[in-house]
Amino acid sequence: MIKKEFFLISLTIFVSVIVWMIADIYHAFYERKIAIPKLPSIKTYHLDDKILNILVEKQP
Amino acid sequence: MIKKDIFSKKVQDYTFSVLFFLIFSFSIFFIIKPTLTTLFSLKKQAKDLEEVDQFYDQKIVMIAQVQQFLENHREKLPLLKEAIPDKPNLAKVIDDLNKVSSESGFLFKKIDMGETSLKEAKEKKYNQLVLNIEGEADFSKIFNFLEELLKQRRLKMVEKLIITQNKESSPSGLLKVEMEINASYL
Predict the structure, then answer these.
(1) What is the pLDDT of residues B89-125, one digit of tens each?
(2) pTM recorded for the entire structure
(3) Structurally, what CATH architecture does the domain formed by B82-185 represent?
(4) Could you tell me the residue ranges of all domains in chain B?
(5) Which of A11, B27, B32, B121 is the most exposed place for a label (fewest CB within 10 A)?
(6) Which chain A residues are within 8 Å of B76, Cβ to Cβ?
(7) Where are the beta strands (DSSP E) in A1-60?
(8) ipTM score here?
(9) Least Cα separation, residue A47 to chain B (angstroms)
(10) In angstroms, rounded to a whole number, what is the distance separating the alpha carbons of residues A17 and B89?
């Protein structure tokens, strides 16, 4: 009987270690390592040349 | 009797299994798990770095576009600041009006500032300086005044214009003018 209990204990340890390993790998794979840095937003500018040409013609 | 018990088939199987599970658990815990964890962690790190790299690439392209834009319009961009300055520059507006007035022959009777909200409204993209002007001139001079005013680089809008016949004036035909001029600033 004691042999069977030893067997069950060792099997439980084995299964626990396997589950622990899977959980650890899952955590390592899904945890974000490097965060995307927060940089100021850069706008795209559109300027009509007509406006500048009109302003060139005007008096300062 | 003992010897026979130890080497019986059943006992041997259990001993093998127990030893196998214990040794394999030990090797998993101390060898396989750290290796696999490091492997997947590095894989994830590489993926994250690719994302960050892509993000920086996008920003660099946008900065290059802005730089190109500034390079193309370098000479003309100060004109925008002259047209719509970042401060009201009231003295400059009055000076502009005086200049136009002396050029066109428009006579000022009164200039006062209208209501200006000092509260910076967030939704407003620009502010306005309101000037109420009263003056006298004949029609051609009024026309010249407005023409010269709108030729100036500092942007001004004539929001309201009332021209009435001045009954008190001499028979020279001077007209009474009331106008509201808005000068914009950022």
Answers:
(1) 888 888 888 888 888 888 888 888 877 666 666 667 7
(2) 0.59
(3) 2-Layer Sandwich (3.30)
(4) 2-71, 82-185
(5) B121
(6) 52, 55-56
(7) none
(8) 0.76
(9) 9
(10) 76
